What does this fold into?
Amino acid sequence: MTYEITHKQRLELLEAYNNLRTAISTLGECHNLWLSDVRNLEKLECDLYRILKFVPKRNEDGLSVHYADWILDGDDDD
It folds into this structure.
């Protein structure tokens, strides 16, 4: 299965990537993290699962297990 990422989504990921680089740089230089960096990391997490269609695993009762590693959407046969 192939996914097409729109130009808008590429720009969103680019912004998130640059925010990630800034947060990592701050961590390395100051051994500290700004609250805005935490916000940007959370936004990156949301952008990645939304654009790349990641979903939480489900337990034997069919309930989402958000604390476990996420997986590819069930529509993805690869």
